Each structure stands twice: as C-alpha cells, then as structure tokens.
Amino acid sequence: MRAAVHTAPNEPLRIEELADPRPSRGEVAVDVTSCGACHSDLHVLKGELPFPTPGVLGHEVAGVISELGSDVTDLAVGDRVVTSFIMPCGDCAQCASGNEEICLNFFAYNRAKGQLYDGDTRLRRPDGEPVWMYSMGGLAQRSVTPTTSVYRVPDNVELADVASIGCSTMTAYGALRHTADVRVGDAVAVIAAGGVGSALIQLAAVFGASVIVAVDISDEKLADARELGATHTVNSGTVDAVAAVREATGGRGVDVAFEALGSASTFAVARDSVVEGGQAVMVGIAPKGTTGELDLGTLARKKLQIKGSYGAKPRRDMPVLLDLVARGRLRPQDTVSRRYPLEEVGEAYAALDRGEVRGRAMIDIG
To answer: Could you tell me which residue ranges the Enoyl reductase (ER) domain spans (predicted)?
Structure first.
C-alpha cells in the first residue's frame, strides 16, 4: 500500500510503499477513503511533539472495513466506518472509571511510542523495518486500529463527510459536554476558529448557547464562523479581543471561553474574557514547553476555573455525534474547506502551517 511517511522533524513527508498491515486480536483493517489534516500532526512534523520515526500520522479516518482480527464479532467486512483518534484500551484504571479520553495505555503505548497495545506496530517497510503509528496511522491506503475506536457510519451519511468527526468534532464535543457542561442560554467564546474551533462553534449552537463569539485573526475564517453559528466575530489582529468579547456580552464576559489553538496569547484572551466564576477551557494542543501566565490573586478573587480538555469519551460520544449528523443537526462537511490527494499531503500541512486552511483540510486517499 501507499502511505505518507514522516522520516524526521521538518523533513517532507515521503510517499512510500509499505506492506499491507494486518489486524491482530480485537482489531480491524480499514481501507481508508479520507483522512483529516490535524494541527497535532503538524506539531509532530515540526518536532514540537516528540514522536518516533519513521512513522505514519493521520488520525481522522473514514473508510471501509476490509479485514477482521480474531474475536471481532460486532463489525463486518464492508462496514462503512469512522474512527476516533483516542483508541481506549478498555482495561486500564482510567477506562474502568469512565475516563477513556485519558486512557493510560493510549498515552503509554501509542502517543509515546507509536505502538498498539501488544507493544508492536502494524506497519512495516518492505524490508521489515517497523514504521510507527500516530493513532491508527491514517495517512495510508490501509489502517489497522482496535475496535474500540471504530464506529459504523449511518446509511444516509456520506462517508466522505465524516472523517473529522473522529478528532476535531469529538474534541469539541468533549470540551462542551464533559469539561464545561455548556447549557442552553450560556454565552461562550471560541478563541481560534480553525478545525477544532469550527467544530466548537457548530456544536455550541447545537447545545443552545445564546451568544457565540468567534475570535481569530483571519476575516475569512470569521466569515465562515458566522455561517457555522457564531453570533459575533472578533478580529484579534485589529481590535482588543478581550474588550470586544466583553462588549458582545454587554460588558459581562462569557460563561465559557474555549482556547482552540494552543498558544500563550490565545490563552490570555480566553483567561481574560470570562465572567467572574466562569471557565477558561484549554482545548488546543500547544507545543511542549508552552506556558501561560496566571495572576493568582485574580484567579482566587474572581473564582476563575482554568480547565484542560482532551477529546471526548469515544464509546459513549461517537454514536451521539453520528446520530446528530444523521439527523442533520451537525454538518462536519461544512467545516472542510480544502481537499488534497495523498500525493499532495505535504502541501496540505504546509497550508495549515501558513494559516491558510479554513476549518479542516481533508486528504482523499481511497
């Protein structure tokens, strides 16, 4: 099969022929039709998030099951599926307590080492050299993943529309539903209207937020944010973003501010935009070592809540999201602004790095 292989930080992705991966016990192979280009992949490509090489990135996957591993009984060859970037092991202490979004084995084996839960990768070069997997290694014609990250796509939903459900949309849902518990009538701000930010805006409208303020430095992204449900937009490159967010709420501030980029400057906007007792929720993945400032006196006096959020609970939440899509309440396809063939995957990430991608770029593979 063909795959986009990451060989070293700041080096171009290489299209290589790898051996077809085979699923082991409790796993399936998926013939990939499309895979989203996520900012966390970009952090790996730039060396900002450590990951072993050679490796295959890509973790927003839609495709068709082509092979079953042993003991797989609830899925079938030919099923149209989407995957979640978090692949819960189902057995560790966090999974057992309902916190599968921070599955201990996912971080110990996969995010740290590019392995699945038997301590090995499913990817090999033709000479047998191992190639490591960032989640399921979706930037390839075939991907192997545990069944805990695989979900059937409803019959009335186009497969090409839903790859981003497994990362950007699921990440947004986890932040809104589990971390912030956004309620009908809440006022929210979304700081950075990229892939995850666009999903936050869409879902905040579904959740019934009365005020949704989108903050970005791109007028084009802000125009898209309006289409996705933002009630107010703020260009932080031309105005005082905090003052503008507060103006949109009559001087009060928002109940929840979601930081969706991962930088000190956007953290500061989120921190200062919330009402007393409000929540600033960090969703964007920052390069390792990035820090933000907190005035401890203000933190206590205003009873501010600073929270981190990492995805949703796949086995509970992916079916909910797919049902929203099937009923037309959620349209992830509206956040996809660019599509690239696998051969042009490098340009997709270069455009993402330049800030040119509105919403999500999609790599069409199948």
So the answer is: 8-363
Q: Record the tokens describing residue 188, joined without a space.
A: 């929210």
Provide Rg for the chain, Cα atoms. Answer: 20
> Which residue intervals of the chain bear CATH 3.40.50.720?
181-308
How much is the pTM?
0.95
**pLDDT tens digits, residue range 178-235?**
999 999 999 999 999 999 999 999 999 999 999 999 999 999 999 999 999 999 999 9
Q: Cα–Cα distances in Å, from 44 out to 7, 11, 55, 93, 358?
A: 11, 11, 10, 28, 20
Residues 260, 194 contacting (CB under 8 angstroms): yes
The two tokens of residue 89 are: 């092991």
How many Å is the maximal CA-CA distance in the chain?
64
pLDDT tens, position by position, 84-95: 999 999 999 999
Which DSSP string corresponds to 286-325?
PPTT------HHHHHHTT-EEEE-----HHHHHHHHHHHH
pLDDT > 90? residue 112 = no
CB 45 within 8 A of CB 57: yes
Sorted by sequence, the CB contacts under 8 Å of residue 136 that are 6+ apart come out as: 30, 58, 59, 61, 83, 87, 143, 144, 145, 149
Average pLDDT on 312-328 reads 97
Block residue for tokens 């260009």: 235
Query: pLDDT of 172-187, one tens digit each?
Result: 999 999 999 999 999 9
> What is 181-308's CATH number?
3.40.50.720
Question: Beta partners for 189?
Answer: 213, 257
